[in-house]
Amino acid sequence: MNIHEYQAKALFEKYGIAIPKGAPAKSAAEFDAAIAQIPDGVCVVKSQIHAGGRGKGTFTDGFQGGVKVCKGGKAEAKEIAAKMLGNTLVTKQTGPAGRKVQTIYFTEANQIKKEYYLAILLDRASSRPVIVASTEGGMEIEKVAEETPEKIFKIFIDPGYGLADFQARELVFKLGLNPAEQKNAIKLLRALYTMFWETDASMIEINPLITQPDGAVLALDAKVSLDDNALYRHPDLVALRDLNEEDPKEIEASKANLSYIALDGNIACLVNGAGLAMSTMDIIKHYGGNPANFLDVGGGASKEQVMAAFKIILTDPNVKGILVNIFGGIMDCDVIAHGVVAAAKEIGLGLPLVVRLEGNNAAAGKKTLADSGLKLVSGDSMADAAQKIVKLVA
Ligand code: ADP
Ligand code: MG
């Protein structure tokens, strides 16, 4: 789960990570009250969407920049905010459709001595948290990694021990900070690691982290992703979820405990098991089709879950055909069959449907489908089923 910058910054504040003074507003009526909370003078207006690259983004009406530093102070900030709110911002990370801005964050502008990059994430190769830092802040880190990898420093953390003092010191030396900055940066690193650990985050990224002429170290931006699997431990963090930022189909799927990700093809897949779901998408591609989604109903799905899955698939207007690919290990194929039949009867099935059932109770499942009167094609193998659905959709 991702959260907005202003929410991430509230967490930063709680953990003692220095941030610019700021306040959010969700409507134009809230602008004055929010602006009143920041100091007079130059201020910054920031579109709140779950995507980076806002500063260099463009709104669909042509207005440039989802983050604006306003030299004209609060009056200008209010004008700019009115142009951003409700407008759709396209950045390198949003895709061409962009994201509608529904919250504006007003902050003070800070004097910047130098910009840095700082992140903590989970390194899958070493199974450890890793701190990634660079002297090249404010730029795309992918570009720095490609062009000047020597300017990126990594520290791998033993999760049993936590961030060691020598590691924090080593990092601030490598970043070339002066003694006053080092002291503040080490304090910030410790707080950041504590937050990463306690919130079960999968990533915290600060780009840019800045130093100021007096030695202060401040997080100007904040991107936080939380591990969905740990959210049950954090009701306070679950409350930060913004459903406006999520695909409605994915919201429905998460309510039914299904792993669903919408894609841009036209062949919907209903599969049990993430590995089989991946290979089903691969085989559809292999035979020249395009998957409309990743959908794993899990190892022990109920009829209700299968129905929910089927409904989600059928509400996607891009879907032109459906491939059900089930390998019953724990999963009872007949349960899937009953779910498919019930959902198709309830919603009405006007699309080609290919079903491949294999394994546990497959014969009963096939009989349920055959007796239902539903118009469907059965596939004998994965390859056969994939070829059939690709052909039907074409
Ligand atoms: P994004 O990464 O989505 O473009 P940022 O929050 O990093 O958004 O803001 C973009 C740029 O705006 C920053 O790199 C920085 O140069 C400038 N900026 C943001 N906040 C401030 C601030 N409080 N004071 C001065 N400049 C800022
Ligand atoms: Mg940024």
Automatic annotation (TrEMBL):
Substrate binds at N272, G329, I330, M331. Residues 2-210 form the ATP-grasp fold succinyl-CoA synthetase-type domain. ATP binds at K46, G53, R54, G55, N110, E115. Pathway: Carbohydrate metabolism; tricarboxylic acid cycle; succinate from succinyl-CoA (ligase route): step 1/1. PROSITE patterns: SUCCINYL_COA_LIG_3. Mg(2+) binds at N207, D221. GO terms for cellular component: cytosol; succinate-CoA ligase complex. Binds 1 Mg(2+) ion per subunit. Keywords: ATP-binding, Ligase, Magnesium, Metal-binding, Nucleotide-binding, Tricarboxylic acid cycle. GO terms for biological process: succinyl-CoA metabolic process; tricarboxylic acid cycle. SUPFAM superfamilies: Glutathione synthetase ATP-binding domain-like, Succinyl-CoA synthetase domains. Its EC number is 6.2.1.5. Its cofactor is Mg(2+). Residues 270-390 form the ATP-citrate synthase/succinyl-CoA ligase C-terminal domain. The keyword Magnesium applies. It catalyses: GTP + succinate + CoA = succinyl-CoA + GDP + phosphate; succinate + ATP + CoA = succinyl-CoA + ADP + phosphate. Belongs to the succinate/malate CoA ligase beta subunit family. Heterotetramer of two alpha and two beta subunits. Succinyl-CoA synthetase functions in the citric acid cycle (TCA), coupling the hydrolysis of succinyl-CoA to the synthesis of either ATP or GTP and thus represents the only step of substrate-level phosphorylation in the TCA. The beta subunit provides nucleotide specificity of the enzyme and binds the substrate succinate, while the binding sites for coenzyme A and phosphate are found in the alpha subunit. HAMAP family: Succ_CoA_beta. This is Succinate--CoA ligase [ADP-forming] subunit beta. The gene is sucC.
